[in-house]
Amino acid sequence: MEILIFAGSTRQDSYNRKLAKAAAEIATGQGAQATLLELADYDIPLYNADLEARGTPPDVIRFKQALHSHAAWIICCPEYNGSYPALLKNALDWASSPVKGDPVWGDGVLPFRGKVVGMCSASPGGLGGLRAQSHLAPLLLNLECWLAPRSHAVSRAADAFDAQGQLMYPQDQQGVQAVLSQVLWAAQRLHA
Ligand code: FNR
What residue stretches are annotated with the NADPH-dependent FMN reductase-like domain (predicted)? Predict the structure, then answer.
């Protein structure tokens, strides 16, 4: 089973990127083939329907293709002001916009329907980005993703990773493992 993992941050020392890398290692250990996607590699402008009407930007098409070609995703989500960052919302809005004759999704009005998604988050605070997850979940469910019941939030993220970027604490390793187990379980049943 192939799984796409990405962080909603382009910050150089992003905790969520570290979390995405840790999740990829855990996924590999669970027998999955993990692909790490880096949003900084995609030049995605702010969504504007007029811009889209003139032609979907090439990097948006590349991002859609990455999402389309994976049945299962893990999103590692930062928390800004109790919600998820504009960067992530913008990328997901572009990717899920129903474009007539879309070269990636076709004519479906719900391009993400049936995608199996797990949410993780990391933040320096005590809740670890849980409130961002609580806002991201309705977006994903609205698009009819299959959202894993388990999620994991890494709190006090400044102290949660070692110098190699590995998750230091068993509760975080086990939490991410649990999310991945559910995502892979569901993806095998829905997309095998
Ligand atoms: C934050 N941060 C933050 N953290 C948190 O736990 N709850 C919050 O509501 C907020 N709010 C917030 C607003 C804004 C505008 C910024 C810039 C930051 C801190 C945030 O979690 C921290 O910057 C993380 O390091 C962001 O994730 P990455 O980039 O490290 O993955």
Answer: 1-157
Distance from Cα 85 to the centre of ligand 1, integer Å: 9
Closest ligand 1 atom, residue 18 Cα: 31
**What is the CATH classification number for the domain harbouring 135?**
3.40.50.360
Q: Count of domains in the chain?
A: 1
| DSSP character at residue 159 | G
Ligand 1: nearest atom to the Cα of 127: 6
Cα separations (Å) of 191 from 55, 115, 184? 31, 9, 10
pLDDT in tens, 111-136: 999 999 999 999 999 999 999 999 99
Does the complex come out with an ipTM higher than 0.95?
A: yes
What pLDDT, in 10s, does the model give residues 29-40? 999 999 999 999
> What is the whole-number distance in angstroms between the Cα of residue 98 and the centre of ligand 1?
30
Taking CA 178 as the corner, what is the angle to CA 177 and CA 184, rounded to the nearest 5 degrees?
Answer: 85
